[in-house]
Design a protein that fits this description.
Blueprint (H helix, E strand, L loop, with lengths): L15 H23 L5 H23 L2 H8 L2 H26 L3 H22 L6 H21 L4 H17 L6 H25 L10 H24 L5 H7 L2 H13 L6 H33 L1
Helix pairs in contact: 1-9, 1-11, 2-4, 2-8, 2-9, 3-8, 4-7, 4-8, 5-6, 5-7, 5-11, 5-12, 6-12, 10-12
Length: 309
Amino acid sequence: MRNPDSLTSKTNEDTPQGLAFAITAYVFWGFLPLYMKALSHIPAAEVVAHRVVWSVPIATLVLVAMRRTQDLKAALLSPRTLLMGAVTATLISVNWGIYVWAIASGHALDAALGYYINPLFSILLGALLLGERMSKRQLIAVGLAVGAVFVLALDTGSIPWVALGLTLSWGFYALAKKSLPIGPNQGFLLEVLLLLVPALAYIAYLTSTGQGNFLTGAPVDTWLLLGCGAVTAVPLLIYANGAKLLRLSTIGILQYIAPTMIFFVAVFVFGEEFGRARMIAFPMIWAALILYSSSTLQQMRRSRPAKGS
């Protein structure tokens, strides 16, 4: 869902263009479960492979249009950048796989929960691994998130692995992405290029064994798999460029659009059960996010005078 390597705005002011880009991307992500549900009869691994393959031409065209291909060439010649790119590519593929499976198997509410928890996990990672200080409100917010996961675990008798899997994979992806010395557009293309060979090999295997759905199944399946590139690459690239034109605090608030839309789609379109445990856990998460957002906004207001002095 959001692209963490682009969370630093080039300006300290919101722009109409930045807002339009970011909101458009989040709305795309909010409706994405509807698209993925149409592919629910196709194995998640095959869907992820096609997300990779058909993202490559779109991301390449964007980079050519921006005349930024030299940055990618330099990255491909750097062993360190390639290694970090392999790490982020692996994490994003795992995230995509869990997400596609979750939507197809009736766990869209768990996907929404995972993306709600993600910013709280990110600040926890920052505190544990980067030595960043957490405010009291942020500590309480993280505690509420842990409590919500505990409530769900008690109710089901097992860990909500879909939500935690999405949170962990995206959180560590965001952390690793900071080490990539290239921009968001170049970084995304590098990731899908690194995944391209295994994706093509897997699709070829499926085709040769008669298990594939591309060109061999219903025509609508072929078109939906082709469209995986657009629904994957377009919102990521739109967001990556829009975030440069927004303040971090604005992005922090807007990021809840997508999981909120996923939540409503899961309950009112897919008809997923919103049982007692979720009635307790989700309000705990929402309260945590209010605390987190208010703390972030307060910290940014305090930092502005110091920057101007």
